[in-house]
């Protein structure tokens, strides 16, 4: 299905997303706010990158720009080798369709569709048929196999987020952006969802960027980037303990 | 609470404005109606006052009975010998005698007609200046074979002084010289009517009144009251004449126009209230949706200590404010609409007199009251719903309104309402011994209940119906189409309410189309059944009488096998006023009447004392062949008749009234008789040569129109179609209201689904996809209203056809298909604005929208 038709743009370089000298300014004149002040970032294929930072650090802005939802004031972003900052709305939409998946804090499922329909929605929008084996595998892995025909209102928060994760992965995108995926879940469910995110990266090699302010969430990443005042101020490698993350965070707050 | 209501509405300007439009349109139609009818009444009032300016008393012929007022019969004229006697009375300062009637001006062999308005002619007596209502603008007063014409016709036809013009009244066309141009009364406009003035002897000849008068107008000497004058004249009156004060005369003259205007007013008001009724659906729906969206806001108010009552008051207050603002706006729009209605009637062939727009205080009060009341009533249910918002919803994501205590009874209630509505309707239609107002009331109330019931009930059908109607969208529209179908089924009650507004308009439009098709079918059937073949002669406008002389001239056409002239008028039979007709012996070869008793030879045997009656009349009065019958004409003259035959009229009507006599007998008791139609059978049937021969023969009667059977049917139906078109335009306004309802719902839905739309855009929907999604949802909603509306309209039409004899149930398939396409167009139009809004949403902001 999608993967075989899609050019493997990321393979030669091993780079999924690349950003250079990103700045983002909101407003003008004296009241202008610089959300990003020159961010360079490379996300390699198959890695899970966590972006952390106190509120107002610019982490959400960074993710929105990387995903092509917002435009930078200056700088460039390329996804799967395509420069996206100058693309028209329609071209950008098509690029998102093929290369980008989203997981939202509030799940954003369509209430009138059942779980399976929600999962295959991006494919329906693109006018494609889902690959049965892939879909079955995905639903099995996300633990939704016996929930396929349930509506969002009949699912728990954790189950809804599983549907959202499966939806993000169904097109086998170049990259998945997860915006506070555990922000609206209790601690036990959060743990399960983080495990799922991690296993998607390990099992499918799904490149993922996750924005979070939870230390525990960040600790599952291969790399953790810390943002403060619109700049990347620190980077930690894999197997970082949550306590280390908290340490860095408190140093940033002060 | 008032402050919160106002501030909330200010924040939701667009939503509030869209809600208000529904009321604006309804109120505008009501205001427009009052303005139109008041203006016409004012103009007519001006005309009738002008006619009797300076007059204190009038003498007219007196009918032997009250005429039905349908215009086919006029009061009999009286001898002009009365005029000198009136003039000789001691208290009479001046008196003029006059004749009048319909006088067509003929230019290049064609009758001058403006928008179906009458062509009036009358005598003028310039020697009695005090009693002359015409002012000479240019030229001179008319002499023998001369005519003066009103200046408005002068301008429209570019007449010049000294021009020769044809005039046709109760005889062949006469060539006359235009001696002058006149202006009537004050500044009163007379609509599209043409006026022609003659000197008395010329007028008497034209109108077949030689030696007779239609009216004497008298002016009293100074100090003599009109009442005293009336008393003096009364003393010298011969039989079959009457005297009235000018005031009373003006009033009785105005009676016919007034009753027509009242009818027009009620008719238009009915459509105004229909539009308001549709508008109330739109408002109720919009408020309900806003409340669902404001759950958190209302809950916050509750946590802050607002009581349920206060929440309810808040919503009703919003309704009140919307209603008041919309009503005021509606009054202004209505003034514009008044002008538009004049134009509409003009375009449909009814030019109405207009002497400036009249806005009465009553109009303003009625419009305000209706608009505000309807809005407040429509807001009651949403307000009730709002009270069910629990305070806890303030802190909960995506809280849903709990269903009300009565929710489970709703389908039952809706079904009962619908059933009750049908019961009332059927009672009104089929119940025996009901008065007109009781019939109309129970039919109206029944229809209203049916609409409300079906609207409530249709929530149940939305899922399956939208599934079926959305199939094409789902099949060909890709994901956008499939989502549109799901969206339309997502909140069935909302979709149902939105569609219901359209359903009402379409049901009524369909009902009228079915009715019109039914009337047309039965009329066509009747003509086919009765009339063997040949040509018909009617006036140019299909309903005015034509001179007997025209029929007589046509009878001399070479090749005529038979001719039947049909005359008609009021007659007193068995103490009641009935429609009577007369026909010659030629009818036997022209018509094939179904006889209950007798045969076609009845036509030839009528003679001086024969009559035939229709089956219903015979039953009512227990008549059989041989029964005696006394017929009294308006002149008071009577005929002793004997029933020779009883016929069964077809359901589509017949040219014969309940009682028919021979034309020879008719002409003895009816002064200046006229034909309604003439039917001619020619050797060789319908051929161009035959038609040309009759037309040649009728050259002196330009108002007479020769038609084949097909043309005759079409022309008679054309009148129905003209009325139909006016009704369609008026109902279209309700459809426009419901169109705004759909726009409103879609806009509100887009607000509500902002985050969802953001997500769809994020996962790959293009702006075009989003637009197509909204468009498809709109079309599905409109189609839903269309399908239910058309179906309901057909059912209502079927019920009516079952009751009313002259409506044969007929499905106007072409029109129904047109209506169905129309609904889809409504859906497309309604989607334009909301779809654009949805597509323009910024993905990022949409995703973060709460």
Your description of this structure?
The complex is a heterodimer of chains A (254) and B (850). In chain A, helix 4 (115-126) runs parallel beside helix 6 and helix 6 runs parallel beside helix 7. Helices cover 36% and strands 24% of the residues of chain A. In chain A, the strands form 2 sheets. Chain A has a 6-stranded mixed beta sheet with strand order 6-7-8-3-9-10, with helices on both faces. Chain A starts with a helix and ends with a helix. Chain A has helices at residues 2-5, 59-66, 89-99, 115-126, 132-141, 157-169, 187-204, 215-218, 242-253; strands at 15-26, 33-44, 48-52, 74-79, 82-83, 100-103, 175-179, 208-211, 223-228, 231-236. The longest helix of chain A has 18 residues, at 187-204. Chain A is α/β, with parallel strands linked by helices and 254 residues long. With 850 residues, chain B is an alpha+beta fold. In chain B, helix 12 packs across helix 15 (492-530), helix 12 (436-469) packs antiparallel against helix 23 (767-803) and helix 15 packs antiparallel against helix 21 (709-752). The chains are: A alpha/beta (254), B alpha+beta (850).
Task: Based on the model shown, name its key terms.
A: about 250 residues; alpha/beta; 4-stranded antiparallel sheet; 10 strands; B: alpha+beta; 9-stranded mixed sheet; 26 strands; about 55% helix
Question: What order do the helices and strands come in, and which of them pair?
Answer:
The complex is a heterodimer of chains A (254) and B (850).
Chain A: H1 2-5, E1 15-26, E2 33-44, E3 48-52, H2 59-66, E4 74-79, E5 82-83, H3 89-99, E6 100-103, H4 115-126, H5 132-141, H6 157-169, E7 175-179, H7 187-204, E8 208-211, H8 215-218, E9 223-228, E10 231-236, H9 242-253
Parallel strand pairs in A: 3-8, 3-9, 6-7, 7-8
Antiparallel strand pairs in A: 1-2, 1-4, 4-5, 9-10
Chain B: H1 2-11, H2 13-51, E1 57-61, E2 78-79, H3 82-87, E3 92-98, E4 100-102, E5 104-107, E6 110-111, E7 119-123, E8 134-139, E9 146-150, H4 151-157, E10 164-168, E11 174-184, E12 194-198, H5 200-206, E13 212-213, E14 215-220, H6 226-236, E15 241-245, H7 246-293, H8 295-303, H9 308-347, H10 361-386, H11 410-430, H12 436-469, H13 471-476, H14 478-490, H15 492-530, E16 535-539, E17 546-547, H16 548-555, E18 560-573, E19 576-583, E20 594-597, H17 602-605, E21 610-614, H18 615-620, E22 628-632, E23 638-648, E24 659-662, H19 663-669, E25 674-682, H20 688-697, E26 704-708, H21 709-752, H22 754-762, H23 767-803, H24 813-840, H25 843-847
Parallel strand pairs in B: 7-12, 9-11, 19-24, 21-23
Antiparallel strand pairs in B: 1-14, 1-15, 2-13, 3-14, 4-7, 5-6, 5-10, 8-11, 9-12, 10-11, 16-25, 16-26, 17-25, 18-19, 18-22, 18-25, 20-23, 21-24, 22-23
Helix pairs in contact in B: 1-9, 2-7, 2-9, 2-10, 2-21, 7-10, 7-15, 7-21, 9-10, 11-12, 12-14, 12-15, 12-23, 14-23, 15-21, 15-23, 15-24, 21-24, 23-24
